[in-house]
Write a structure and sequence with these properties.
This protein is of the alpha/beta class and 111 residues long. It has a single domain, classed as STAS domain (Transcription Regulator spoIIAA, 2-Layer Sandwich), CATH 3.30.750. Helices cover 34% and strands 23% of the residues. The chain has helices at 27-34, 54-69, 81-89, 92-96; strands at residues 5-10, 13-18, 42-45, 74-79, 101-103. The protein has a five-stranded mixed β-sheet. Strand 2 (13-18), helix 1 and strand 3 form a beta-alpha-beta unit. It is globular, with a radius of gyration of 13 Å. 30% of the residues are buried. The model has no long low-confidence stretch (mean pLDDT 90).
């Protein structure tokens, strides 16, 4: 498993915590680590992802589609406002729906 993604089992499902920014440098390792699971629900925790570039967007979209195509429920939680803004600008939120993303509104919302 990639050190960029930590997996934990919780009562809500499998939590995959991305521990880095989603960028060109890490995209291939993160993509492989995110799409290796066959059961859900999947909680994609983006607490530590402060930046996402176009390659990272591709990884995120691929991951969301991968699980949705398999009928596995997936949600992205603890999305920082600056990352969510990028997702909105490029239309990812429109494609997958606002309910799929849980945004951190205040710093106190972070675990």
């Amino acid at each position: 498993m990639s050190e960029e993604v930590v997996h934990m089992t919780s009562q809500d499902g499998l939590r995959l915590m991305v521990t880095c920014d989603l960028d060109f440098e890490r995209a291939e390792r993160v993509a492989g680590a995110l799409t290796r699971y066959g059961e859900g629900p999947i909680i994609l925790d983006l607490t530590r992802c402060q930046f996402i570039d176009s390659t990272g967007l591709g990884v995120l979209v691929h991951t969301l589609r991968h699980y949705q195509d398999q009928g596995i429920e997936i949600r992205a939680v603890h999305v920082l406002p600056q990352v969510f803004e990028v997702l909105e600008i490029v239309g990812v939120v429109d494609v997958f729906g606002r309910d799929l993303f849980v945004i951190i509104e205040e710093p106190s919302d972070m675990p």
